[in-house]
Structures are given as C-alpha cells and as structure tokens.
C-alpha cells in the first residue's frame, strides 16, 4: 500500500468515526433531554393551573357575593309583599299569607323534582351494564365464565368499614410513595426557573435536531459509503497484489535448487548434442 493510499484510508476512517460518533452522541443527548423537557413542561402546566385556580377562587368569591345579594333581594321583596298586604290586613296575617304562598311554591317544586328524580332511578342502566360485563366475561373465559360473579354479595357494615379502611390505607400509601418520589428529585422549581430551563433546553434540542439532520443527510451518507467502499476495494487489491508477489518470491526461494540443477543439466546436454552433430 502506498503512502497516498494509507493517507486516504486513515482520512476515511477518521471521517467515518467523526460522523458515527457525532450522530450517536447527538441521538443520546436528545434522548436524555426530551424526557426532562416533557417533565418541565408538565410542571409548568401544573403551575399555570394553580394560578388559574387562584383566579377561579376570586371569581367564586364574587359569585358567592352575588348569590348573597340575590338572597337579600328576595328577602327584601318578601318584606315588601308583607308590608303591602299589611295595608289591607294585619301585619301578622300578611306575613302568614306570604309564608304560606312560599311554602306552597316550595312544596310543589320539591314534589316535582322528587318525581322527576325518581323516574330517572336507577341512574346506571343495570341490565345494559350487566350485559356488557357478561359479554366481556364470555370473551375472556368462554363457557367457564360464571354469571353469578356479576351479582356481588351484599356486604355487612363491618365488611364495608374494612373495605373503606383498606382503600384509605392504600391511598395513604400511594400518597407517601408519591411524596418520597418527589423528595428524591429535590425541591420544586419556580415558574421562572422552569421557563428559563425549558427555553435553554429547547435551544439545545433545536441545535441537536439540526445536527442530526446534517449528519443524516442522504448525500453525505451516500458519499461516505461510496468513499468507504472505494478505500476498502483499493486496500483489497493492494493486499492481493502484495500477496501474489510474495507468493512468487516464496516459490522461487523454495525451488531454486531444482531449477539450477535443471538449468545446468540442460546446458550440458546442449553442449554434448552440439559436439555430436559436428562429428
């Protein structure tokens, strides 16, 4: 292999290593940054929701004030009705008349609401829901499915209390695990820190994307593959030529004695034949 071929081969290897390592490092960095970026975006969304919750609290306060003044307005109207009737009948009788009218309106409204609510019971379509569960059970277990499992037995008060206590314990355990997991990640970042961190990481990801696109360019990769193939073919040819020359030399070294004897014998035979022909 000539010096030029060696230089080309070394340059191709370094180029391939640079391209391969840059591409792998960019991919690793992007895979490491993307989850962090998503977590910070979620934390930022939570902070924004907390801010909106505070604003909703202020709206709720004003809505409660409006409701209170509406109640006061109704009271004032009732007082005005009582005062108006007091000009015709005694004050106590007018108050009783207004209270009776309100009681009638309240009773009628409550009765209508109760009847409508009762007509909607049960709110959950039991038969349809039971049929869906039955179909799912048949799909999962086939003929081995027992429809009796769709109708759970009534629990006693003690069993209900035990189930509720178990659910509370599970919720407390989950809450403790969540708190421990949050404590491992350190204190929560503020909104300004999250904004700055996500902006910086976004710029980094943008640079990584451009680097990945540049490294994954089809033309560049095709050129790299063609150059690598050429260098390998040239190296193979040079190795084959060097091997053939070496083989010829080795063969000559191994057979020089028989060849020398043959040459000497041929020369002597030729001289003898020449003398015989002259005679």
Molecular structure report:
With 279 residues, the protein is an all-alpha fold. 87% of the residues lie in helices and 0% in strands. Helix 1 (3-86) runs antiparallel to helix 5 (191-215) and helix 1 (3-86) packs antiparallel against helix 6. It is elongated and about 180 Å long.
List the helices and strands and how they pair.
Blueprint (H helix, E strand, L loop, with lengths): L2 H84 L4 H30 L5 H16 L15 H28 L6 H25 L2 H37 L1 H23 L1
Helix pairs in contact: 1-2, 1-5, 1-6
Strand content: under 5%
Largest sheet geometry: none
Distance between the termini: 59 Å
What pattern of helices and strands is seen along the backbone?
A: HHHHHHH
| Class of secondary structure makeup | mainly alpha
Give the mean pLDDT. 76
Number of helices: 7
User: C-alpha Rg, in Å?
Assistant: 48 Å
The rough form would be described as: elongated
What fraction, in percent, of the residue positions are helical?
A: over 70%
Summarize the model shown:
The protein has seven helices and no strands. With 279 residues, the protein is mainly alpha-helical.
Descriptive labels:
279 residues; mainly alpha; 7 helices; elongated
């Amino acid at each position: 292999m000539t010096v030029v071929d060696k230089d080309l081969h070394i340059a191709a290897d370094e180029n391939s290593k640079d391209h391969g390592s840059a591409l792998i490092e960019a991919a690793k960095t992007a895979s490491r940054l993307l989850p962090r970026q998503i977590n910070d975006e979620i934390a930022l969304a939570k902070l924004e929701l907390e801010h909106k919750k505070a604003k909703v609290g202020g709206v709720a306060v004003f809505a409660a004030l409006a409701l209170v003044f509406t109640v006061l307005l109704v009271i004032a109207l009732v007082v005005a009705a009582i005062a108006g009737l007091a000009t015709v009948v005694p004050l106590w009788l007018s108050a009783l008349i207004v209270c009776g009218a309100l009681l009638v309106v309240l009773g009628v409204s409550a009765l209508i609401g109760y009847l409508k609510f009762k007509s909607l019971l049960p709110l959950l379509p039991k038969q349809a829901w039971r049929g869906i569960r039955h179909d799912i059970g048949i799909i999962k277990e086939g003929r081995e499915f027992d429809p009796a499992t769709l109708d759970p037995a009534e629990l006693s008060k003690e069993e209900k209390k035990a189930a509720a206590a178990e659910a509370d314990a599970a919720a407390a355990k989950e809450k403790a695990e969540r708190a421990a997991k949050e404590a491992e990640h350190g204190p929560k970042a503020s909104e300004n820190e999250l904004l700055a961190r996500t902006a910086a990481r976004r710029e980094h990801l943008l640079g990584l994307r451009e680097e990945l696109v540049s490294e994954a360019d089809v033309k560049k990769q095709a050129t790299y593959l063609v150059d690598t193939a050429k260098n390998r073919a040239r190296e193979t040819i040079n190795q084959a030529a060097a091997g053939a020359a070496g083989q010829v030399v080795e063969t000559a070294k191994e057979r020089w004695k028989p060849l020398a004897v043959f040459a000497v014998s041929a020369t002597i035979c030729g001289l003898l034949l020449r003398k015989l022909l002259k005679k």
